[in-house]
Amino acid sequence: MSTVFRIAMATLACVFGANAFAALGTSAAMDQRGQLWMAYAEQDGGAANVRVARFDAPSEKWLPPVLVNATPEPVSSDGENRPKLAFGPENEIYVSWTSPTSAKYTGDIRFARSLDGGKTWKAPTTIHSDRQRIAHRFESLIVDRSDRLWATWIDKRDLRRAEQSNSPYAGAAVYFTYSDDRGASWQGDFKLADNSCECCRIALALDARGQPAAMWRHVFEPNERDHAFASLSPEGGTKPARVTFDRWAIDACPHHGPSLAIANDGTRHAVWFTQRDGKGRVFYGQLGDPGPTNVRELPAGASHADIAVDSDSLAIAWKRFDGETTRVETWLSHDAGKSFVPGPVLRTAVESDQPRVVAARGRTYLLWRQADKTSVTLLGQRRLSTEAAHAPAAAGISSRVQAVRPFERKTLGAIEREHEGEPFWLILWDLECTYCVKSLQHAAEAQKRRPGLRIVTIATDPVREGPALSKRLALLGLRGDAFAFSNAPTEALSYAVDPTWAGEKPRAYRYDASGKRQSFSGVLSVEQLLEGGSD
Fold first, then answer.
1. Which pLDDT tens digit goes with each residue over 177-221?
2. Which DSSP category does 385 fall into?
3. Which pairs with CB-CB distance under 8 Å and at least 24 residues apart come from 384-391?
4. Dihedral, 520, 524, 529, 534 alpha carbons, nearest 10
5. CA angle, 430 as apex, 427 and 435 as ends, to 5°?
6. Beta strand 507-511 pairing with 517-521
7. Where are the alpha helices (DSSP H) in 428-509?
8. For labelling alongside 158, which of 112, 118, 339, 342 has CA 20 to 30 A away?
């Protein structure tokens, strides 16, 4: 795929009223259809209303905001501790925020959800089981590729226990919980790590397997505030690994958390703030073992950087004051972070939030909320080889299946790399094959029984049939990446799938975690899909 960047700036006057900007902390995220949303708090005295709003790209306007919590309550809405939002596959909108309690530096993690695209909202709930009047703050929210919902936060219950027993304890702790039923109930609390920094945001991203991973500022012995990384799982998460080695020793609150973006090939791109030689700096690097590689220093004065990745396209944005105005500056990479070129620069003379960069479904956006307006900049739009690859799902059809993308001679290698280390099914089919429909029906049933079952489909129909293919898959209720043959010769594409395949359909391949695959011809049963089988 070729990658192009098109700058299309939409600076939009805000329509939320003057009192809406007493606190400017705003989050940005993209839903399953690639639409940009933001979440923020509209202050009303000591309480606040949390709202979400969707950006309408064709008109370059924000649609009227939607109220999340019918009853106002205290809401943290500064740059590091602001409302968050995430999206499920069936039009679910999830919103979380920290609600400060009466004691200083204490709070609860609150959560609200809409199951109908924001038309109606369930009453907010507190997601952690611990109800002590302590700090539960700086939450983050994410949905994995199995549609499981995760939340992390900074927690001081272990510090309180240490204080009660006169034991030493540095910092706070990172806790998490998850939901398998669209936020109706939560499993947890699970401790991911002791000794986190007390006042920095936690960065969440999905790894190459579609599972959540976290990066945060940690307090390492003897007193170094570097960064740690760990993966989350229902079993409790992996052991935290140190991923930066700047050795910033300080008894202070940096108020400056990292940002993390993980590419399909597993490369972990990150930006973080630290101090070297007495000077504060922001760095970009690729997290590895024993330390980051390809490290680059952002310009002096850069702060609160954010990062997003889409295929080989990478975008970084940061805030900087030039002596007269506040600027948001950007770097763009077309080669997965090997090199960068300057991107657009935005300026304001009024109060403003930190910049947010989000990428999904071929688009990369920069959102910057200011006291008098909210700016949306389209930093990048990935150009696919055919317009059909961008075809939206038909009206009234589930959006769980992604738009059909072209399958080319090298696409199979990309699919295998994306699913490296995890089992998955590759199923070939076409619109005229009745046996193929039976196989796909069984695949959808298998996913219902095992939501984490990963299935990739390749239609031998031409990719220009993308709308019809998307509609068929959506009607069947099948989730997963979908491809269709590109304009290359059919024989060449069939050979790229399997040189020994004679063209019969349905045809399928079961990949195990090691990457070894087994071929199947004919209709797959639900049991085969769940357990494997033989030709």
1. 999 999 999 998 999 999 999 989 999 999 999 999 999 999 999
2. S
3. 384/1, 385/1, 385/463, 385/486, 385/487, 386/463, 386/464, 386/466, 386/486, 386/487, 388/463, 388/464, 388/465, 388/466, 388/467, 388/484, 389/463, 389/466, 390/362, 391/466, 391/467, 391/470
4. -40
5. 75
6. antiparallel
7. 434-449, 466-476, 490-497
8. 112
Half-sphere exposure at residue 455, Cβ-oriented, CA atoms within 13 angstroms? 29
pLDDT in tens, 298-331: 999 999 999 999 988 999 999 999 888 999 999 9
Please give the structure tokens belonging to residue 35: 């639409």
CA 477 – CA 256 distance, rounded (Å): 42
Extract the tokens encoding 55.
């950006």
466 DSSP 8-state letter = H
Q: Phi and psi (nearest 5°) for 296?
A: -135, 140
Query: Residue 469: helix, strand or coil by DSSP?
Result: helix
- CA-CA distance, 205 to 213, in Å (whole number)? 5
Section 105-111 average pLDDT: 95
Query: Is this prediction's pTM over 0.85?
Result: no
Outline where DSSP puts E strands in 197-278: 203-206, 212-220, 224-231, 241-242, 259-262, 268-276
Sorted by sequence, the CB contacts under 8 Å of residue 437 that are 6+ apart come out as 429, 472, 476
Check residue 393 and report its DSSP letter: P
The DSSP element (H or E) to which 293 belongs, if any, is strand 293-297
